[in-house]
Amino acid sequence: MKLNVKALAFTSGILWGLGLFCITWWIILFDGATCETTLIGQVYRGYSISPIGSVVGLLWGFVDGLIGGAIFGWVYNLVAARTPSATA
C-alpha cells in the first residue's frame, strides 16, 4: 500500500504545529510566560514560552512537520515498492 505523500506531509505539519502551540499554552497557563531559552527555542528561531512564541512555534512546527512527513512518506513508498507484498 502506498501513502499519499502530500496528505501525510500536510497532516504531520498540522499535528506538529498545533501540538507545539498547545504545549506552549499549557506551560504558560501553569508556569507563566518566560524569556528563558529552551531547547526548542535553540532549534526554532524566535520561539519562546510566550503568546507570540506559541505562534512562532506553530509556524515552525508546521514547516518542520511538513518536511518530515514528506520525507517519511517518500521513504515509506520507496521501501514499500521494493518489498514483496504479503498478500501477493
Model description:
By secondary structure, this protein is mainly alpha-helical. The protein is 73% helix and 0% strand. It is built from three helices and no strands. It has helices at residues 5-31, 39-43, 51-82. Helix 1 (5-31) packs antiparallel against helix 3. It is elongated.
Brief summary of the model shown:
The protein is mostly helical and 88 residues long. The chain contains three helices and no strands. The chain has one domain.
Question: What's the structural blueprint in terms of helices and strands?
Answer:
Layout: H1 5-31, H2 39-43, H3 51-82
Helix pairs in contact: 1-3
Describe the structure using short key phrases.
single chain, 88 residues, mainly alpha, elongated
Helix and strand sequence: HHH
Counting H and I runs of at least 4 residues, what is the number of helices?
3
Summarize the amount of helix as a percent range.
Answer: over 70%
Rg for CA atoms: 17 Å
Overall pLDDT: 91
- Shape estimate: elongated
Termini Cα gap? 12 Å
Q: Quaternary arrangement of the chains shown?
A: single chain
How many independent structural domains? Answer: 1
**Strand content range:** under 5%
Low-pLDDT sequence parts: none
User: How many strand segments?
Assistant: 0
